[in-house]
Amino acid sequence: QGFAHVFPQAKSAIPHGWIVVVKTAYKTVTGRVRTSYGCGFSQESAHAAEQLAVSDLRAYSWGWKPEYGYAKVEVKRY
């Protein structure tokens, strides 16, 4: 959408494993709607990757709280 520079939020050097991308939409304390994403990678399981994705979401979106919920956008094994 016209951005000059795009930086990845998450990456992994794991050659094989699971990737999970989560998405949430919530209102900030100022009343603005915000959409945020989290991404997690794991060799063990999709569940472990999901937990890392939620951790990533919290790291980038300080106003997000677990009670706001999230949806799994992508769950893949690579």
Structural write-up:
By secondary structure, the chain is of the alpha+beta class. It has one domain. 19% of the residues lie in helices and 35% in strands. It is built from one helix and three strands. It has a three-stranded antiparallel β-sheet. Strand 1 and strand 2 form a beta hairpin. The chain is globular, with a radius of gyration of 13 Å. The model has no long low-confidence stretch (mean pLDDT 90).
Low-confidence stretches: none
% residues in beta strands: 25-35%
Shape summary: globular
Write down the overall mean pLDDT.
90
Rounded to the nearest angstrom, the distance between the terminal CA atoms is 28 Å
Number of helices: 1
| Overall strand count | 3
Overall tally of domains: 1
What is the alpha-carbon Rg in Å? 13 Å
Q: If strands are numbered along the chain, what order do they take across the biggest sheet?
A: 2-1-3
Structural class call reads: alpha+beta
State the order of secondary-structure elements, H for helix, E for strand. Answer: EEHE
The helix content, as a percent range, equals 10-25%
Major sheet characteristics: 3 strands, antiparallel
Topology:
Elements: E1 18-27, E2 33-42, H1 46-60, E3 71-77
Antiparallel strand pairs: 1-2, 1-3
